[in-house]
Design brief:
The protein is an all-alpha fold and 84 residues long. It is 87% helix and 0% strand. The chain contains 5 helices and no strands. Helix 2 packs antiparallel against helix 4. The termini are far apart.
């Protein structure tokens, strides 16, 4: 394998390439395809795209969702148990 191919296979390089692609697509969609009043804030789209693909943020959101689900399930069990 040549050095360029090894570098592209590196996880951080892949994440950077995915982020760049997601940001470019988000910018295009926000600036060109959305109505003018929304397109005024097109610079938020690439930021959101990069944040959405970042694994740490994804992991945090997933864990938060699991925690909220656990709390809700616990509350439902407590309510059902207290009324029985």
């Amino acid at each position: 394998m040549n050095p360029a191919h090894r570098m592209v296979r590196h996880a951080r390089v892949q994440l950077a390439l995915k982020g760049a692609f997601a940001a470019a697509v988000a910018w295009f969609v926000a600036a060109r395809l959305l109505p003018d009043d929304v397109a005024t804030y097109a610079y938020y789209a690439p930021l959101g795209a990069v944040i959405a693909i970042h694994p740490t943020v994804h992991r945090s959101v997933t864990e938060a969702g699991r925690n909220v689900a656990g709390i809700v399930i616990g509350a439902v069990i407590a309510l059902v148990g207290s009324t029985a």
